[in-house]
Design a protein that fits this description.
2 copies of one chain form a homodimer.
Chain A (H helix, E strand, L loop, with lengths): L12 H9 L4 H7 L7 H8 L3 H13 L3 E4 L3 E4 L1 H10 L1 H13 L2
Antiparallel strand pairs in A: 1-2
Chain A binds a DNA duplex through α4.
DNA sequence: GCGGACGCTACAGAAAATGTAGTAACGGAG
DNA sequence: CTCCGTTACTACATTTTCTGTAGCGTCCGC
C-alpha cells in the first residue's frame, strides 16, 4: 500500500490520480518543471508558496514517481511525469480560448 | 476583475486555469459529471465532501462557465466544460499504467 | 396543508496552508 | 580551520480552508 487516498476510499487509479492532482500547488509544480529542472528555492519563489507546502507536495510527487531530485540539476520530471505533462500540454492553448469565453 | 486568482498574480490564462483546477474537489466534480447530469446531493454523496465546499466549488465552476445548473436534469458540463473534459479523458487510461508503475 | 426532494446556508471544530525563522550538510575561499 | 554561501528542508504560531451536522425556504404531488 503505497498511497494515502484522501478523497476516495475506492483506490481506483483515476480517483487516486485526481486526488493527487487536485491538491493545492501540485498542477502548478508539474507545470513549472515542464521545461527544465528547478532548485527548491527557485521553485518556491516561482510559485509563491510556503516552503512547508512545497516540500510536502514535492514529497508526494516523488512518492508518486512523477518528480525526482537530481543533485546536479535540481527537481525534475521523471519519464512518467513527462508523460503526464504531455497529456496536459493542450491545456495551455485551450486556456487562452477559455479565458476569452469567460471574459475575465 | 471577476476572478480571484489565488495562486498567481500574473493572470495568465494557464495559471488561472491551473489555479482553478488545483482546488480541492474541482477535478473530481468535473469527472463526476462526465457522463450525465447530477443533482446537488447526488454529487455530494458521490464525492463525499461537505455541502459547503461542494456548493462553493460549483459556484466557481459555474462562474468559469464549465458547469451549469439545469432545473430539469441537475448540474452538467457546459460545452466548454465538455471540451475540457475531453482533454482529461486520456488520464483515465494513463492512470492505470501509472498505478502499476508506482505500486512496486 | 403535509411530506418529500430540491438547492443551499450556518456554524463550531478540525485540518491544511502561510509566513517567518531557523537547522544541518556541503563546498570553496581565505 | 574558520567563514561564507548554497543547498534541501523543518518548526511553529497564525490564518485560511474544509468538514460534519443541522437546518432553511421553495416547489410539487397528494
Amino acid at each position: 500500500m503505497v498511497k494515502r487516498v484522501r478523497g476516495s476510499k475506492t483506490g481506483r487509479p483515476i480517483m487516486v490520480l485526481l486526488d493527487l492532482l487536485g491538491r493545492r500547488w501540485v498542477l502548478r509544480i508539474v507545470w513549472e518543471l515542464r521545461e527544465e529542472p528547478r532548485r527548491f528555492r527557485e521553485l518556491q519563489d516561482a510559485i509563491g508558496a510556503s516552503p512547508t507546502i512545497v516540500n510536502s507536495r514535492l514529497a508526494e510527487l516523488r512518492e508518486a514517481k512523477l518528480v525526482e531530485l537530481d543533485a546536479e540539476s535540481g527537481y525534475r520530471l521523471t519519464a512518467l511525469g513527462r508523460e503526464l505533462l504531455r497529456l496536459f500540454l493542450p491545456l495551455h492553448l485551450w486556456s487562452e480560448k477559455w479565458v476569452k469565453a469567460v471574459a475575465l
